[in-house]
Amino acid sequence: MKSVFGDRRAVILLLTPALLVYSLVMLVPVVWSLGYTFFEGNAINGFSFAGLDNFRELLSDPDAHAALWFTVRFALVLTVVQVAMGYLLSLLYVFVLRRASSLVRTLVFFPVILPTVAVSLLFQQLFEYAPRNGPVNSLLNVFGIHSVDWFGSSGSAFWVLIIMETWRSMGFYAVLLYAGLVDIPEEILESARLDGASGVRLVRHVVVPLSLPVLLSSVIFSINGTLKIFDSVVALTNGGPGSSTTPLTVYMFQTSFSYGEYGYGSTIALLLTMLCLVVTLFIFRTSRRDTTKA
Amino acid sequence: MTVTSTPAHARPTTRPAQPARRSRLRRLRRNPLGTVATWAATTLLLLVILIPLVWLVLGSLKTQNEILNKPAFSLPDDWFNFQNYVDAVVDGNLGTYARNSIVAVFPSLFMTILFGVAAGFALEILVWKGRGAVLVSFLAGIMVPGQMILLPLFTIYFNLHLTGTLLPLVITYTAIGLPLTVFMMATFFRGVPREIFEAATLDGASTIRQFFSVGLPLVRNAIFTVALVQFFFIWNDLLIAMTFTSSDDLRTIQVGLLNFQGQFGQVEYGPTLAAVCLNVFATGAIYLFLNQRVMKGLTAGSVKG
């Protein structure tokens, strides 16, 4: 029996294609990219050794700091907003709509699968200011509010990004959290109700603590995804106005391909990767400590 | 007399009725209001989701003049004006972009699934030294941002003279899809009772035979789910496609769409909306038939963030 499950040749035969492709196209480039951080130049003109120059530049480059700050701010705000919206929706599904929630769940999930570029072009038009008013500004006008140049200032562009991403993703987090809420045993809720807990108090003192694990994993997934935000920014604002909505991902792309600085681009990519790693480990740590305490 | 007698007569009946009335009131206050609030919230939610999509479809049927000079919420003059769609496909090159996407997506989807399922089987069912470490190294790949591998890959493809073809996309998509595929397939194989494979061993099946005749059929459904999830990730990708498509006739549908407005010189609203519409419908059609499976699959693959 053991010899069949431990058949060396079979292991090699089944694992090699995946491992080979994965190593050559992902693992080797990651190490290679680390090597680039000590060089200057690009694939077309060649490279020259630069020592720690790229790291020094990263420390003193105001654009990089702005991109880092935008990335962190965006990830934090979007994570809070989209997980909160998802949680509210999942509460609506579980406690209010109950069995009837299937259709609503399916419809609200729909934007999740749509191509980001398509959604971004749609939102560009929805929030359009000139040469004509899009539906959002028209709606504001109906209520007597002046049209807003949404993509004209960094503050409003930031919020349009948040609104679009929330529209796209709240159905996803709702379904993810729904799965966690459905698992809460009915007896616990019933006994809490008999003890007089209802409405907000029931949610705050019984439902939230019981769904904390799935809430935390949603937060991890969300932060991990939002730190890497690229498509929506490129397609919706292209980093503008100016470079005020440029995250690290887009800054890395511009540095590498518009300015041909592969070394510095790799250094920014490394910063991004470290950021994802640190955040994930940090949240894992705190969540594990919390569960052992409780 | 009759006037005073009414309250006097009513008094004894109202007293016992009071608690009943109060409780009914409470129920009235809670239920209908709660129901109204529920309906309002649900309706608002569905409007927020659906109005942009409805507006998109309406806009794709309007002429440039209608879009610029009529209110944003007006209905199209001619409901069967499909000129925008013709413009998007013919002048906007959407057909070429869609073909490129198909050529890039399906071979990589096939390979990532085949390799990933085999690796998942080898890592979860077979017993050998170091399998834990290999599984973890695959998992680490889920977290690595695409930016981290972009530049070395570009250098490699450039030096191999592959940049004028769609091969860089096929290769990169295959590799990028692997971590999640391996992770999900290993999870599914973990759910299969080992006794099934042990019984097959007693019947004299070799390991490779086990994989093809026992393992694969058992996780057929799971394979389909993972393939759907990967399809959406690859089809909707922008970063890889933007980096490795050097010329216009290599662009995938997402890159093509991104550069769409530039194609016409000025902003041509109708064709742009029509192109967005076609792109939305393509994935929407899949969702129409397979929504429950898509929802299950995407949330199961949520580690990808």
Write the layout of secondary structure elements.
The complex is a heterodimer of chains A (294) and B (305).
Chain A: H1 2-5, H2 8-36, E1 39-42, E2 46-49, H3 53-60, H4 62-97, H5 101-109, H6 116-126, H7 135-142, H8 154-182, H9 186-194, H10 199-210, H11 212-227, H12 231-236, H13 248-258, H14 262-293
Antiparallel strand pairs in A: 1-2
Chain B: H1 2-60, H2 64-69, H3 83-90, H4 94-124, H5 131-143, H6 147-159, H7 167-190, H8 194-202, H9 207-218, H10 220-235, H11 239-244, H12 253-258, H13 260-263, H14 269-300
Helix pairs in contact in B: 1-14, 3-14, 4-7, 4-10, 5-7, 7-10, 8-9, 10-14
Main location (chain A): membrane
Domain ABC transmembrane type-1 (chain A): 68-283
Keywords (chain A): Cell membrane, Membrane, Transmembrane, Transmembrane helix, Transport
Write structural notes for this entry:
The complex is a heterodimer of chains A (294) and B (305). With 294 residues, chain A is mainly alpha-helical. Chain A is built from 14 helices and 2 strands, in the order ααββαααααααααααα. The model of chain A has no long low-confidence stretch (mean pLDDT 88). Chain B has 305 residues and is mainly α. Chain B has 2 domains: 2-46; 93-304, MetI-like fold. In chain B, 78% of the residues lie in helices and 0% in strands. Chain B is built from 14 helices and no strands. Chain B has helices at residues 2-60, 64-69, 83-90, 94-124, 131-143, 147-159, 167-190, 194-202, 207-218, 220-235, 239-244, 253-258, 260-263, 269-300. Mean pLDDT of chain B is 83; it is low at 1-29. The chains are: A mainly alpha (294), B mainly alpha (305). At the A-B interface, helix 1, helix 2, helix 4, helix 5 and helix 6 of A face helix 1, helix 4, helix 5, helix 6 and helix 7 of B. Chain B: Residues 1-20 have a biased composition (Low complexity). Chain B: It comes from Luteimicrobium subarcticum.
